Amino acid sequence: MNEIFRTHVDAMEPSFKALLEMVPISGSRLPSDIPLRGIYLFSDGDPHLYVGRSTRIRKRLQAHCRPSSGHNSATFAFRIARQNTGILEATYSKKGSRAELEKDSVFGRAFQDAKTRVRAMDIRYIEENDPMRQAILEMYVALSLATPYNDFDN
User: Fold this and answer.
1) Closest Cα partner for 51 from 61, 41, 59?
2) pLDDT tens, position by position, for the chain (154 residues)?
3) Cβ count near 111 (within 10 Å)
4) Do the beta carbons of residue 111 and residue 77 sit within 8 Å?
5) Secondary structure of residue 98 in the 3-state scheme
6) Is pTM, for the whole model, over 0.85?
7) How far apart are the C-alpha atoms of 135 and 52, rounded to whole Å?
């Protein structure tokens, strides 16, 4: 293994442990002292469900949790709504697009319900300012916890 990469990976465990040891907060009450850059973790009780990274954690968490957020902002809730409705495949035409799904009465309701659920979840975060380490840490946490809503598909 490349030694530079190994050095980065070997440094992930302390950050991973610190993330899990954080007393969780709720999306409805975000503290003002959230670090600017790093990763965040959504959990629903014991199961850890989704990990993300951001250069503006507070704003990103607000976007995930805001009732008015759309499909491009509340991506985690959108994934939950897909799972709950069984509409799992992305389409690349207007019919069945994310914007169209959001307008659909059944999917739209599932999306709103998912945003409510996400807002009530436990949230943990940890500061990581280096973009390379942030990306590696996001994957490290997602793989270590087997978070079901992370797929890293582009």
Assistant:
1) 41
2) 899 999 989 999 999 999 999 999 988 888 989 999 999 999 998 899 999 999 999 999 999 999 999 888 999 999 999 999 998 887 777 777 888 899 989 999 999 999 999 999 999 999 999 999 999 999 999 999 999 999 887 6
3) 25
4) yes
5) helix
6) yes
7) 9
